[in-house]
Amino acid sequence: MPWRAPSLEDLIGIEHSKLGFFQELRQTIEALKDANTQSSQRRREIAAILDGITDIMMVLTPDLRILSVNHVFRQVFPDPAPEGKFCYEIFRGENHPCPNCPAQRSFATGDICRETAIFKINGKNIQFEMVASPIHHPDDPEQHILVFKRDVTREKEYQAKFYQAEKMATIGMLATGVAHEVNNPLTAIFGFAEGLRRRLPTLRETVDPAVMDDVEDYVTTILQECRRCQDIVTTLLTFSRHKTVSFSPVSLNAVVEDTLKLLRSHLRQRNQAKITVRTELCEDLPMVSGDEHQIKQVMLNLLVNAMDAIVGPGHIIITTFQEASGAVCLSVEDSGCGVPKENMDKLFEPFFTTKRAGKGIGIGLSTCMTIVNKHQGEITVKSKPGEGSVFIVKLPVNTDKTS
User: Fold this and answer.
1) pTM as predicted
2) Positive or negative, the Cα torsion across 85, 88, 89, 95?
3) Out of 30, 34, 63, 391, which residue is the most buried by the measure of CB atoms under 10 Å away?
4) How many Cα atoms occupy the beta-carbon half-sphere of 48 within 13 Å?
5) Which residue from 333, 313, 316, 229 is spatially nearest to 271, judged by alpha carbons?
6) 260-275: per-residue pLDDT in tens?
7) Comparing 83 with 366, which gets the higher pLDDT?
8) Inter-residue contact 397 to 327 (CB < 8 Å)
9) Where is the PAC domain (predicted)?
């Protein structure tokens, strides 16, 4: 077909077509700009929401590798690049998953799983409540898990303090009544025994010497036992009496001896099962700065737990020593049933107990940790199922802490 010059109508049609194309292109560009603005605004809103969350957050793969974390994670854990590492490497320094891992359970069940556990971070035991939730994305066939870790240490401490305060208030009322009821007959027994002791020289002239020796021995024993009963009542009152916390020099050796004196009757009953208690106390042990009443409470709880852990014959070894770092240590070792590995993280959790009903409500060890932390100390445990446990309390020799 021979070429012909375009007509005016053709040129007008082409211009209209171009104009329509550019108008559509401009509208598309403006729509993209609006969408991009909305997307950027949405991203900023999501970022603001995430920044406002004060819990530790992380996304895990099925093999428990960390994909991403939030800013709180980086503030709590010093690792500058946690991505790609296993979560248990950072939290525990272990090469295997933690017992009762909620992330693993969430992967297996597809449900939201919860768990509480204690982690040691920067030298301090911190209790976390963990929530693991599956993340489902239609474009990603691999399932991920979102984990929240909330610090509930202070909350648990307040709960333990509340229940401990209630218990100690009840014991205080009972101890006051018991002290009056016991001291009255004790005073009479002590008075009459003292009267007999004063008459012994006169009786010696008329009584057979062998019989007289026995009578003197009996009177001396009565007086000694009366004094011991008075000491026991006094010690019981110091455990239960509410008083202002005051830090002063405290001897751990004296704490051990006073606690054993208080539990002598309980130990005597348990001796039917042939439980032996041995002490290895350092003679030149330095004083620690603390509240004697509270430190005795720690010793009492550890010793009672050690006795309850032993079924049948066994032994308890109480040791005091000083570490090269200067810390003064108290160790309570038992040959009891030990602690299963899956329960190690829960030992110091309020209301966690493996004792049968009526033997404890699970606030003893939690209270111990609260007291030791208040004294700027540390409490640790080593245990193997069937081989017993060792609880070690470390306290600084000198602190600037005052009540």
Assistant:
1) 0.47
2) negative
3) 391
4) 6
5) 313
6) 877 776 666 655 557 7
7) 83
8) yes
9) 112-164
